[in-house]
Design brief:
The complex is a heterodimer of chains A (252) and B (215). Chain A is of the alpha/beta class and 252 residues long. Helices cover 38% and strands 26% of the residues of chain A. Chain A has nine helices and eleven strands. Chain A has a six-stranded mixed beta sheet, sandwiched between helices. The longest helix of chain A is centred in the C-terminal third of the chain and has 16 residues. Chain A is globular. Chain B has 215 residues and is mostly helical. Chain B has one domain: MetI-like fold. Classes of the chains: A alpha/beta (252), B mainly alpha (215). Chains A and B meet through helix 2, strand 7 and helix 3 of A and helix 5 and helix 6 of B.
């Protein structure tokens, strides 16, 4: 298992956003998380990438515990220096890209490898250029984020996450902020990564994409996992009434 | 008194004004950042103390503050204040302007989208790295117009040093004007201030242009 979330609970004030969520992702697996807005999908990703702290349950990476309940029932995270290592296992691609506007595209990809992972500039730049070529935007290396289209910016954001060589990459609705005609180029890149067996968890509203690319689909609603399984099964033969209801909306 | 002597005397005053100006900026620009960060401290007591400091600095006249810094040590502790004039002026200006700069910095820091911070954290940047490499450069660009405003105000505020009988350009203008019954010194002072601020505007404009490479 690359990542394992066990019995995750998360509250914002008195509102419980995640209730007893458990799921794991194996190496090379592509998991799609679907569900209505407000169902806790994004919060789950934010908990997995340590942007939010959990209120209950356990988080494991590479069979090592990053967070869990102690004897008194409170959630305890590993110390800061170890958390740093756990963070390096996972990458996150945001809905809003969140590129660094004051850095060139190349520097967006090399700054963290150089200053966080202490790799040589030469190596970081080689890796970055390889990634940009793969994303089809090598000619933009010297440009700044504002000069790129949304689709190009999101591909840079994916490359930036990959430049850190994570074990697993999380996507939080990577195409939701894009114009419809630009979603294709981003989905194509994710599909390509799937073919290379990059381990990924994708929160998405792109049902055909989820069906075609993922090994497993998780349907979430109201902070719980309602149903999960083979994409074909979940989309064509959903067991739960709630899943059927949700998917019917997309058929129209 | 010839025009030339007048001009020469006042140019010396302008140099003294410049001294207050430069030292104030050197002290208050960094100190303002410290104050801004303390204002965002985890500890409520620190936030309250810093909040009170900013309120007092902004809520009372700078002229009054200068008088307190200069005469305070004598009236409160009976200390001799000879030689304390210039340090008191600089101290008063630095502490006052740091409060204003702190609020400008805080506004700038809070205007940076939270996604910038989150992206940096996920990439493994430490808190210090996130601030120095990601947040601060963007803050600098955003606050330039407000900082320019404040710096221009400072050029003119230096004339308040005349309250402590510091011989800067405005004090000299008043003295010469009274002794020579001439309006000319005020015109000269006005031109000096204007030229100084024109230089400030030009310099800050250059910096803004350099930072214009991204949006």
């Amino acid at each position: 298992m690359i990542v394992e979330m066990k019995n995750i609970c998360k509250r914002f004030g008195s509102h419980e956003v995640l209730t007893d969520i458990s799921f794991g992702v194996d190496s090379g697996e592509v998991v799609s998380i679907i569900g209505p807005s407000g169902s806790g999908k994004s919060t789950l990703l934010r908990c997995a990438t340590f942007l939010e702290t959990i209120d209950g349950g356990e988080i494991w990476y590479m069979n090592e515990r990053a967070a869990g309940t102690d004897t008194s029932g409170r959630v305890e995270y590993v110390p800061q220096k170890d958390l740093h290592r756990f963070r390096s296992y996972c990458g996150l691609v945001f809905q809003q890209f969140n590129l660094f506007p004051h850095y060139s595209i190349l520097r967006n990809l090399t700054d963290a490898p150089i200053h966080v992972q202490h790799r040589s500039r030469e190596e970081a730049e080689d890796t970055a250029m390889d990634l940009l070529r793969k994303m089809g935007i090598a000619d933009k290396a010297k440009a700044y984020p504002y000069q790129l289209s949304g689709g190009q910016q999101q591909r840079v954001a994916i490359a930036r996450a990959l430049a850190m060589r994570p074990e697993i990459l999380f996507f939080d609705e990577p195409t939701s902020a894009l114009d419809p005609e630009l979603t294709g180029e981003v989905l194509k890149v994710i599909r390509q990564l799937a073919e290379e067996h990059m381990t990924m968890v994708v929160v998405t509203h792109e049902m055909p994409f989820a069906k075609a690319v993922s090994n497993r689909v998780i349907f979430m609603d109201g902070g719980v996992i309602v149903e999960q399984g083979d994409p074909y099964e979940v989309f064509e033969n959903p067991r739960e009434e709630r899943t059927k209801q949700f998917l019917r909306v997309f058929e129209r | 008194m010839t025009f030339q002597t007048m001009l020469a005397t006042m140019a010396v005053g302008m140099l003294r004004t410049f001294g207050v100006f430069v030292l104030t900026l050197l002290g208050s620009l960094p100190l303002g950042m410290v104050v801004a960060l303390l204002k965002k401290s985890r500890f409520a007591l620190v936030r309250a103390l810093v909040g009170a400091y900013i309120s007092i600095m902004r809520g009372t006249p700078l002229m009054l503050q200068l008088l307190v810094w200069y005469f305070g040590p004598y009236y409160l502790f009976g200390w001799s204040i000879s030689g304390w004039r210039f340090p008191a002026i600089v101290l008063g200006f630095v502490l006052n302007y740091a409060a204003y700069f702190a609020e400008i910095y805080r506004g700038g820091i809070e205007s940076i989208p939270v996604g910038q911070n989150e992206a940096a954290v996920v990439l493994g940047y430490s808190r210090t790295q996130t601030f120095m490499r990601i947040v601060l450069p963007q803050v600098v660009k955003r606050i330039m117009p407000s900082v320019t405003n404040e710096v221009i105000t400072l050029v003119k505020d230096t004339s308040l040093a005349f309250t402590l009988a510091y011989q800067e350009v405005f004090s000299l203008a008043k003295q010469i004007s009274a002794s020579q019954t001439s309006f000319m010194p005020f015109l000269i002072a006005g031109v000096f201030y204007f030229v100084a601020n024109y230089a400030v505007e030009f310099g800050m404009g250059l910096i803004e242009k350099v930072l214009d490479y991204y949006r």
